[in-house]
């Protein structure tokens, strides 16, 4: 993700948060509303694994989720491989984490702003939005309709976030298909391989668009499908790491 994209995304969040702060009367009001509504209970140590948000599910599940993203994700590994050295990769990763923390904190506070603004009339239960993912765009439309340029800024922020994620994932799919399924069994020139890689990227883009149009759901459901793959992906990569250390550990994994 380029610094320009991160800057536009954070600017979009800032626009939402500043407008919400002005509308609600300040930072303390939003925090008070969130506290009264039970949205800031970070120290819930309930051991029930079926609860969605507790201290343990967030720490354990979040750790495994981010290890999967930064340790085994093909798109992320390609970024590491593009660096000239391990030291450069570490520096790039540290800078990336700063941007990630800024975006996550902004998203979290934007969620608190949504709750504070609509605490007495939930647009989702009222039928004004079809899925919870539409709450933030609904807030933007509600609070920024009369502000010139802010709706465009928010649209640009959404586009930057989706463009970065989708483009890297599609490029990773094309690279894996080319390296693992085509190159070992053919003897193509580099020119033809480059053209084929572009064609694969376009094909995966088309498939993604068709899937999006026909299989729509909330981000929560899609995230659940993604979490289901974390275990096999992590265990498979851990197996390759441990295989050179012990003969028994791979069997247990």
TrEMBL record:
Belongs to the sodium:solute symporter (SSF) (TC 2.A.21) family. GO terms for biological process: propanoate transmembrane transport. The chain crosses the membrane at residues 53-71, 91-118, 150-174, 195-213. It is found in: Cell membrane. This is Solute carrier family 5 member 8. Its main location: membrane. It is a multi-pass membrane protein. It holds the Pfam family SSF. It comes from the Eukaryota. GO terms for cellular component: extracellular exosome; plasma membrane. The keyword Transmembrane applies. Keywords: Cell membrane, Ion transport, Membrane, Sodium, Sodium transport, Transmembrane, Transmembrane helix, Transport. One of its GO terms (molecular function) is organic acid:sodium symporter activity.
């Amino acid at each position: 993700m380029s610094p320009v994209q991160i800057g536009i995304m954070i600017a979009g969040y800032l626009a939402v948060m500043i407008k919400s702060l002005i509308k609600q009367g300040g930072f303390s009001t939003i925090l008070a509303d969130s506290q009264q509504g039970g949205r800031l209970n970070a120290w819930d140590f309930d051991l029930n694994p079926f609860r969605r948000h507790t201290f343990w599910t967030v720490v354990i599940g979040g750790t495994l989720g981010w290890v999967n993203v930064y340790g085994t994700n093909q798109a992320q590994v390609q970024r590491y491989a593009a660096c000239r050295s391990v030291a450069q990769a570490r520096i790039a990763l540290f800078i990336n984490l700063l941007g990630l923390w800024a975006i996550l904190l902004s998203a979290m506070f934007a969620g608190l702003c949504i709750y504070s603004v609509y605490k007495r009339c939930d647009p989702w239960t009222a039928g004004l939005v079809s899925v919870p993912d539409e709450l933030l765009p609904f807030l933007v439309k509600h609070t920024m309709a009369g502000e010139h340029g802010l709706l465009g800024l928010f649209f640009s922020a959404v586009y930057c976030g989706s463009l970065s994620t989708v483009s890297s994932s599609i490029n990773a799919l094309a690279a894996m298909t080319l390296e693992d399924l085509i190159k070992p069994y053919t003897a193509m020139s580099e020119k033809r391989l480059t053209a084929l890689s572009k064609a694969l990227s376009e094909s995966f883009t088309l498939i993604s668009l068709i899937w999006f149009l026909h299989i729509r759901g909330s981000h929560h459901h899609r995230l659940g499908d993604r979490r289901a793959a974390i275990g096999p992906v992590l265990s498979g990569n851990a197996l390759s790491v441990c295989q050179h250390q012990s003969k028994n550990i791979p069997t247990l994994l």
